[in-house]
Write a structure and sequence with these properties.
There is one protein chain. With about 140 residues, this protein is α+β, with helices and mostly antiparallel strands. Helices cover about 40% and strands about 20% of the residues. It has helices spanning about 10-15, 20-30, 45-50, 60-65, 80-90, 100-105, 120-130; strands at about 1-10, 30-40, 70-80, 115. It has a 4-stranded antiparallel sheet with strand order 2-3-1-4. The protein binds adenosine-3',5'-cyclic-monophosphate. It catalyses: a ribonucleoside 5'-diphosphate + ATP = a ribonucleoside 5'-triphosphate + ADP; a 2'-deoxyribonucleoside 5'-diphosphate + ATP = a 2'-deoxyribonucleoside 5'-triphosphate + ADP.
């Protein structure tokens, strides 16, 4: 089925001017960028967005990192978009990521891992709604 998933190009990647190269990976995989904006996340937004990780030891560091530079938030659309995006991103830790994936090519560490992508349909819908209004998504 055609799905939509939520994606973030993270600070380590925007800082190194990798937005276009990362978008090329999505498009080459058949994902369409149907919404996209560059934003400076606030600490409050980052904290809410990653609230599921609140009890993890890396939560504070993760939130500080996400506000350290602008990010690009996106909605990606395509056949099986949620899984497809996860395949294109590669494993969370770049040391475990397959050749050709975004994280293998660009990520610096498990924290500075260049991209975020939704892990399931419910989280995709929630994460899209957190950053985009319906009018901003043009399929
Ligand atoms: P993401 O998909 O954005 O969702 C949660 C993020 O937490 C994850 O990507 C990683 O970048 C980050 N993360 C996971 N484990 C660690 C860790 N041990 N140290 C720092 N950040 C981490």
């Amino acid at each position: 089925a055609i799905e939509r998933t939520f994606s973030i190009i993270k600070p380590d990647a925007t800082k190194r001017n990798l937005t276009g190269k990362i978008n090329a990976k999505f498009e080459e995989a058949g994902l369409r960028i149907v919404a996209q904006k560059r934003i400076q996340m606030t600490l409050e937004q980052a904290g809410q967005f990653y609230a599921v990780h609140k009890e993890r030891p890396f939560y504070g560091e993760l939130c500080e990192f996400m506000v350290s530079e602008p990010v690009v938030v996106q909605v990606l659309e395509g056949e099986g978009a949620i899984l497809k995006n996860r395949e294109v991103m590669g494993a969370t830790n770049p040391a475990d990521a397959e050749d050709g994936t975004i994280r293998k090519e660009f990520a610096l560490s498990v924290g500075e891992n260049s991209v975020h992508g939704s892990d399931a349909p419910e989280t995709a819908a929630e994460e899209i709604a957190f950053f985009f209004s319906g009018l901003e998504i043009v399929g």
